[in-house]
Amino acid sequence: MSVNNEIRKLLKEDFSAFEKVFKKAMNTDVALLDIILKYLHKQKGKQVRPMFVMLTAHVFGDITAATYRAATLIELLHTATLVHDDVVDDSNKRRGFFSLNALWKNKISVLSGDFLLSKGLLLSMENKDYDLLQIVARATQEMSEGELLQIEKARRLDIDEAVYFEIIRKKTASLIASCCAVGAASVNAGAKEVEMMRQFGEKVGLAFQIKDDILDFKKVGDIGKPKGIDIKEQKMTLPLIYMLNNSSKSDKKRIIRTIKNHHHHPQKVQGIINEVNSSGGIEYAEQQMNRLIDEALEILNQQKAGPYLDALIKLVKYSVSRKL
């Protein structure tokens, strides 16, 4: 049994209750919007974020209705950001399905994302979940800042390691951090515990993104070439930053010039991928990822043992062991 299925089995009753709250939150009288929301619901992913919310809640107390609302708030926000991201990136596919903007164009997609955000706000306000809303609102702010910071820096490709970590902390890790924080807050954990779990989630989120960076440069199994998508999109990721930091001035200029001017040339992209792999950039990124996971697990080791803590540990390890 996969880790995902194992955790879903442990949380079977919780997921059933969460799905009811989530479906109710997605209700609308507008026929077109109803069709769109049902289409979105069909393509739900592994729902790792609700897992983080509910497992964290169980570690700190008896799960409550507020926990299911917290998981719903997170999932509404996450879905909205994916819809908006597809518009920004002009993507036609999402999880093997056509994206909303591919089927209904940008205007309807943006408005649908706005609707999901508003439903999350209303759900929290109607139930006076102000503490949960504050945590998730901060994550929403940071995700937007992270995206804009990346766009700003990508123009000159002047992202160093410190800026890279700031971008992924805001863009990716903030949402996982908010999952763990709202999970603890939903069962009335103290402020110290909520902050501790926010830090835990942030470390996991950082490691998760570094894993994505690594996969972009590595072959999957014995078949297929590395994707090189980040290079094609002119994104400076940790393995590439390490390679540049350890290159001569002339090589650094050449590589940056290639990324700027030849990022759609398959052979040029493959050449950079080969240089990153031979530079030790992958190994360095793996060291950073493992350091963050060790720090995250150290936080969990301070908590009371039990099946939910064990499942949370497995979820953390799974998040950085995936091959795709």
Q: How would you describe this protein?
A:
The protein contains 15 helices and 2 strands. It has a single domain (3-319), classed as Farnesyl Diphosphate Synthase (Orthogonal Bundle). The chain is 76% helix and 1% strand. It is globular and about 60 Å long. Helix 4 (48-60) runs antiparallel to helix 15 and helix 11 (238-245) crosses helix 13 (266-279). It has a two-stranded antiparallel sheet. Strand 1 and strand 2 (97-98) form a beta hairpin. It is mainly alpha-helical.
Fourth-level CATH superfamily: Farnesyl Diphosphate Synthase
Mean pLDDT: 88
Task: Label the structural class.
Answer: mainly alpha
**Which regions have little confidence, pLDDT < 50, spanning 5+ residues?**
none
Beta-strand residue percentage: under 5%
What's the tally of helices? Answer: 15
CATH hierarchy, class: Mainly Alpha
The domain tally reads: 1
- The CATH architecture comes to Orthogonal Bundle
The shape is globular
Computed over alpha carbons, the radius of gyration is 20 Å
- The level of helicity is over 70%
Largest sheet: number of strands, sense, barrel closure: 2 strands, antiparallel
CATH topology: Farnesyl Diphosphate Synthase
Let me know the number of strands: 2
